[in-house]
Design goal:
single chain; about 500 residues; alpha+beta; Alpha-Beta Plaits; five-stranded antiparallel sheet; 12 helices; about 10% strand; nuclear pore complex; Nup54_alpha-helical_dom; repeat; nucleus; 54 kDa nucleoporin
Length: about 500
């Protein structure tokens, strides 16, 4: 996952997990129906009304239930990005300036016109008028630095309050663009996401109490039923609970309350306060975007995001049909994305381990089943033989006293022919006898060989023979040399003996 600093273009890898899909109330354009979906369109007017009150306009054609719908507004992208939502996508909210002064400036008088937040930020970064000399340029550079890193106060005028720089200001450089899944459920499905500051185990253990509490907040209307569609763990010990509302009419029919209608009711100030008491920190709808809404979202870059980076994010989208680019502001937002990704990785690994265990169990069951099949086949063959023997005995008893019939005679002839073929010397029986004799001989030789104490490898025996042959040849050659030497010695002795006789004769 890349991150951009100093306005450099970078795009994050697509986070395709469903944990990042429920979005944050981003709004674009104009609408007066507080959809509360992942992306709502336009600044809308906050109006209140009795959603579940008994009014003339009952709504949905039922005798009671959702009457007049209420709307709650979200900030439009033209001015600010909405509050941070389930996917953890921070927004560029317009912050209220805090009172104070650095050089004894006067507080804003009630009758004076208050400059807009963007105008204050631009003035603080470009042309502050605090001292009226070249030192104002130093203040401008200092304000620019604060705006870039997204913290601090920018003093720009002695007659106005300082502007507060947060990471949501358009000039903050710690920004990037990531991707989130586009919801695929319809508004008619009525799915609304509630984020609770409780662990998943606690929520599951107290799920029934949670449903009863929500039903009580909705007015204890007997025609309305709160249902839980799913529970999923989120980082920082939070839990996502998806609910939907079903309204039943007296004639027995039922219908889901649209997600936008339910969300609008839950966003009312008094209802929201009651939800906060049971641990709900955020609510959002989960409904798909219309093609026109999706087109408008992609065409207009969010406030504070460079259009070039936004266009590049659309080009680098790995799955344009399923993912949509969303801005990420600050390291906290990046950490939240990383935590969601790690959590989804753990969930996927857990699911893989479960599948692996299931496969191992199935393999064991398969081996057991194969063994049982072999056992049953053997048992079937034994039973078949027993049945055949019973049939033979029964047929013998049934045919006793009757003459041999023609078909039985043909069968006897065929059996005799087969028997003669089997008993022929060159046929199966002769070959079996030959094999049996060879097996007996091998067993006899094996028994004899088993009595031997030592055995020599054939290659080693060949080498021993070759060595002994060489030794034999050397001994033969030595014997021949000795014989030749003996002959020479005898010749010398004979010569010496002849020489002695000759000397004796001369002396005499």
């Amino acid at each position: 996952m890349a991150f951009s600093f100093g306005g450099a273009t970078s795009n994050t890898a697509g986070i395709t997990t469903t944990a990042a899909a429920p979005a944050t109330g981003f709004s674009f354009g104009s609408t007066n129906t507080g959809t509360g979906t992942t992306f709502s369109f336009g600044p809308s007017n906050n109006t209140t009304g009795g959603l579940f009150s008994n009014t003339q306009n009952k709504g949905f054609g039922f005798s009671s239930g959702l009457g007049t719908g209420t709307t709650t507004g979200t900030s439009g992208f033209g001015t600010a990005l909405g509050t941070s939502g389930l996917g953890g996508f921070g927004g560029f909210n317009i912050q209220q300036t805090q009172p104070g002064g650095l050089f004894g400036q006067q507080a804003q008088q009630p009758g004076q016109a208050q400059p807009t937040q963007l105008y204050q930020q631009v003035t603080a970064l470009s042309a502050p008028t605090l001292l009226g000399d070249e030192r104002d340029s130093i203040f401008a550079k200092w304000n620019q630095l604060q705006a870039y890193w997204g913290t601090g106060k920018g003093f720009y005028s002695n007659n106005n309050l300082p502007v507060e720089f947060t990471q949501e200001n358009p000039f903050c450089r710690f920004k990037a663009v990531g991707y989130s899944c586009v919801p695929v459920t319809k508004d008619e499905d009525g799915l609304v996401v509630l984020v609770l500051t409780k662990k998943e185990a606690d929520v599951r253990a107290q799920q029934q109490q949670l449903v009863e509490s929500i039903h009580k907040i909705l007015g204890n209307n007997q025609t309305l039923a709160v249902n839980v569609d799913g529970v999923k763990a989120l980082p920082n010990d939070q839990t996502e609970v998806i609910i939907y509302l079903v309204e039943r009419s007296p004639n027995g029919t039922s219908k889901r309350i649209p997600a936008t209608t339910l969300f609008s009711y839950l966003e009312q100030a008094n209802i929201k306060a009651q939800l906060t008491q049971i641990g709900v920190v955020m609510s959002a709808t989960r409904a798909e975007l219309s093609p026109a809404q999706l087109k408008q979202l992609l065409q207009n870059a969010p406030a504070g995001v460079d259009p070039i980076i936004w266009e590049q994010a659309k080009v680098d989208n790995p799955e344009p049909e399923r993912l949509i680019p969303v801005p990420m502001v600050g390291f906290k937002e990046l950490l939240h994305r990383l935590q969601i990704q790690e959590q989804m990785t753990k969930q996927h690994q857990t699911r893989v381990d479960i599948i692996s265990n299931d496969i191992s169990e199935l393999q064991k069951n398969q081996a057991t089943t194969v063994a049982k099949i072999v056992q049953y086949k053997r048992k079937l063959m034994d039973l078949s033989h027993r049945v055949l023997q019973v049939l033979i005995k029964q047929e013998i008893q049934r045919k006793s006293g009757y003459a041999i019939q023609v078909d039985e005679e043909h069968l006897r002839v065929q059996l005799d022919t087969i028997q003669s073929e089997l008993n022929a010397p060159t046929q199966f029986k002769g070959r079996l006898n030959e094999l049996m004799s060879q097996i007996r001989m091998q067993n006899h030789f094996g028994a004899v060989r088993s009595e031997e104490r030592y055995s020599v490898d054939a290659d080693l025996l060949r080498e021993i023979k070759q060595h002994l042959k060489q030794q034999q040849e050397g001994i033969s050659h030595l014997i021949s040399v000795i014989k030749d030497d003996l002959e020479d010695i005898k010749l010398i002795e004979h010569g010496l003996s002849d020489g002695g006789h000759m000397r004796g004769g001369i002396l005499s």
